[in-house]
């Protein structure tokens, strides 16, 4: 969805979208990254820490109420105020029935032009977690995490059947003409590769709309999609419009794919010690 400057308006819109998804048969619903505000990391401004909230807090309370009412699990997103001076980019996992199963704090924090997240977010310290909801075992990862195969693999080893990536990614206006198509294709390709390498479903949930001043803002490219364990894109939203995708994910597809492509079986876990080093000199 596109976001306004009013956090309450965005929460109300997200609630309406969750109701829409549930009405169309969804069992697990995921919202985009930092949906309660426009993407504030385009600038470094200490006043914007006022957007943060605790967990439990207003967003988790709203989503818990919705989960109980609609009988759906919800993957939420919060700018979490953990303590004075300590803030996280946090995903919530709320089970059908309203129980907050836990949180995931974004592990990989970018620092790029118009993505000044290191100013706001402390890196996560909970690891790569998976959660058993009523309908499936899920693992939330967040935006920049989607470029890291290690994160997807560890979530898969934890039993995840679906990786959810709440996301806020788009084009710099000055780059779109030359690099835009390649950037978006790389974003889709890396996440499809996680689905293939781990034999599971991947759901990427991105925002839409232009935010910021002309030539110095971001045009979010939408394109939310679900890939199956074979890496095929089974549903995809448009670049510019607000949409709710409802996609059936059959767990038997995971079993079938992993039997034929047994990557997890054939891993040489005795030979991967170097992966924990920054570089191998």
What does this protein structure show overall?
This protein has helices at residues 7-23, 58-70, 149-157, 173-198, 251-260, and strands spanning 28-30, 73-83, 86-94, 100-105, 131-132, 137-140, 162-166, 170-171, 201-205, 208-211, 218-221, 225-227, 233-236. It is α+β, with helices and mostly antiparallel strands and 281 residues long. It has one domain (7-276): Carbon-nitrogen hydrolase (Nitrilase/N-carbamoyl-D-aminoacid amidohydrolase), CATH 3.60.110.10. Helix 1 packs parallel to helix 2 and helix 3 (149-157) runs parallel beside helix 4 (173-198). The model has no long low-confidence stretch (mean pLDDT 97).
How is this structure best summarized?
The protein is α+β, with helices and mostly antiparallel strands and 281 residues long. It is 27% helix and 22% strand. It has helices spanning 7-23, 58-70, 149-157, 173-198, 251-260, and strands spanning 28-30, 73-83, 86-94, 100-105, 131-132, 137-140, 162-166, 170-171, 201-205, 208-211, 218-221, 225-227, 233-236.
Q: Return the average pLDDT rounded to an integer.
A: 97
The CATH architecture: 4-Layer Sandwich
Share in helix: 25-40%
Roughly how many Å is the radius of gyration?
Answer: 18 Å
Topology pattern, helix = H, strand = E: HEHEEEEEHEEHEEEEEH
Number of domains: 1
CATH superfamily: Carbon-nitrogen hydrolase
